[in-house]
Recover the amino acids of this structure.
């Protein structure tokens, strides 16, 4: 594989945007750090035309506004795979909206593919292997290891070929209009700040009593605050299962904490008093 270009300045992004306006089809993807930091953010954008693949580092090239006209132009097809999260993230982090969407995962679903992940599709149709371990990698680290850079470039490099294959099959089956309708709906997705108690979004909370829900809410509020303080995803502070057990058992001292699965001696030493106080 040739050396992969990474754009690290605003001037480079502006220059790229000037070139992209003349394209008819562009493939996009992004990588974020949701598995490694409390407040997730986009850490890398991948852009592939038929001739060229480049990566954009938004941690250093922070002004992506030159891309706004390109992404908003419905005459330029924008290829994504599983666009939902990407479109929400682009709007949240950079106020970028996408028109002219073509989502290859939606196509795979309409075509009845057994496996709709990009790695599975590229392996099936093009014998391309993507290492799934990088899906959960820390994309905020710098410099990015060469193998992660290669993985990122491969994510968009083959999407043009996948579109050609899927679009022909959708037309043959008379389902292209279905796909187009789904693309239009997907273009409207946005992140929405959750409202109300956070415990109502907790899986399994429906079986809890009102008192237990109140305890769970206090525990989740504490976990959010601790995650923000440590800049860690909340699951790395304390998992959901011990939170549920705490809400149901409501221990009044640190002794019973040792019987809760997922609470290690280290966690009990560190947070035991806080957790007991939260359930009182």
């Amino acid at each position: 594989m040739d050396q992969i270009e990474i754009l690290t300045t605003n001037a480079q992004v502006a220059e790229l945007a000037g070139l992209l306006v003349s394209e008819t089809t562009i493939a996009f993807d992004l990588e974020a750090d949701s598995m490694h930091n409390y407040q997730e953010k986009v850490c890398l954008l991948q852009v592939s035309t038929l001739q060229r693949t480049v990566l954009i580092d938004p941690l250093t090239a922070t002004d992506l506004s030159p891309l706004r006209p390109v992404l908003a132009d419905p005459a330029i097809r924008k290829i994504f795979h599983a666009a939902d999260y990407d479109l929400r993230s682009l709007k949240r982090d950079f106020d970028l909206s996408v028109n002219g969407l073509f989502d290859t995962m939606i196509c795979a679903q309409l075509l009845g593919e057994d496996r709709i992940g990009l790695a599975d599709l590229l392996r099936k149709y093009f014998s391309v292997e993507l290492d799934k371990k990088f899906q959960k990698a820390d994309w905020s680290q710098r410099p990015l290891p060469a193998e992660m850079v290669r993985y990122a470039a491969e994510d968009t490099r083959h999407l043009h070929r996948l579109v050609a294959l899927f679009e022909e099959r959708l037309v043959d089956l008379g389902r292209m209009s279905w796909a187009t309708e789904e693309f239009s709906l997907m273009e409207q997705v946005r992140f929405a700040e959750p409202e109300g108690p956070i415990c109502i979004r907790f899986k399994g909370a429906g079986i809890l009593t009102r008192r237990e829900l109140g305890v769970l809410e206090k525990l989740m509020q504490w976990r959010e605050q601790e995650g923000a303080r440590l800049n860690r995803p909340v699951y790395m502070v304390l998992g959901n299962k011990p939170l549920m057990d705490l809400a149901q058992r409501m221990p009044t001292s640190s002794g019973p904490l040792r019987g809760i699965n997922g609470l290690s001696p280290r966690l009990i030493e560190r947070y035991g008093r806080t957790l007991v106080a939260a359930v009182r």
Q: What stands out?
A: The chain has twelve helices and six strands. The beta strands are 5-7, 25-32, 42-48, 53-56, 77-80, 101-103. The first strand starts at residue 5 and ends at 7. The chain has a mean pLDDT of 95.
